[in-house]
Amino acid sequence: xxxxxxxxxxxxxxxxxxxxxxxxxxxxxxxxxxxxxxxxxxxxxxxxxxxxxxxxxxxxxxxxxxxxxxxxxxxxxxxxxxxxxxxxxxxxxxxxxxxxxxxxxxxxxxxxxxxxxxxxxxxxxxxxxxxxxxxxxxxxxxxxxxxxxxxxxxxxxxxxxxxxxxxxxxxxxxxxxxxxxxxxxxxxxxxxxxxxxxxxxxxxxxxxxxxxxxxxxxxxxxxxxxxxxxxxxxxxxxxxxxxxxxxxxxxxxxxxxxxxxxxxxxxxxxxxxxxxxxxxxxxxxxxxxxxxxxxxxxxxxxxxxxxxxxxxxxxxxxxxxxxxxxxxxxxxxxxxxxxxxxx
Length: 343
What we know:
This protein is mostly helical and 343 residues long. Among the domains are: 14-93; 111-174, no CATH class; 270-342. The protein has 16 helices and no strands. Helix 2 (20-39) runs parallel beside helix 4, helix 5 runs antiparallel to helix 7 (115-143) and helix 9 (167-187) runs antiparallel to helix 14 (270-297). The longest helix has 35 residues, at 59-93.
């Protein structure tokens, strides 16, 4: 009898223990859990894993633990994928298309196949098409030398894709065009000089000698009938002497030197123009450096270096170039060390 009991215990231990109903429930939970996990239904697999842990005993207990480990791994992976997709969604909302594309390209195959990832790729494609159209509009306006239209199109491009690698070059081209147009306006003759020249010519039309000549015949006509009078003959020289000095008015006309002054003003705009061009380039350099710092704060090191190179072309003597460049190198080195430590 004792031997029979020992044999039953051995058989029960090999069969996994528990009632036949528990054994059946265990096998059912294991089978359904693995199928759901393969389909990507992590929540459903988690429920079946809990059932397996409740019913499985003996040898099947190890299989229940394997299922639980697989479910936990899938949950962690799903959480990481969810976080990654949420980050990409935020980048798209912030119009950082290049950063969003880089994140999407780094997703693992399982996460990339997720429906949420596919929707994000569609959003990215639509936004990129709009940004490409804006880029073409900027280049077209620059080719037509329309600085106003180029500035508007550039603002639109910045609003559509803050990460665009074309932004630094397009900004530099626009700044150069604006500086050239400002120089051309400064070198053009001012309207006041033309009016001044007209005013100079106006006094020349007043011919005092003509007036004197007009007065002389009149005086002669008056004095001719009165030549018999000695008093009249005495006053005639006086009238002649009174009218004779009138031609001296013409001597004051050449003293007006307005044409020479306007010519001098037009011949000396170069220093002011050069200063204006220098100021425009310095402002562009400051803007590029700010963009580089923003990109650095977002760990976009390639974009930061591109902005810094554009700033260097605008103002190679800026004291902030070396400082920001050193910050980019230090931050990138720190990130590489952190990634190496995590691995």
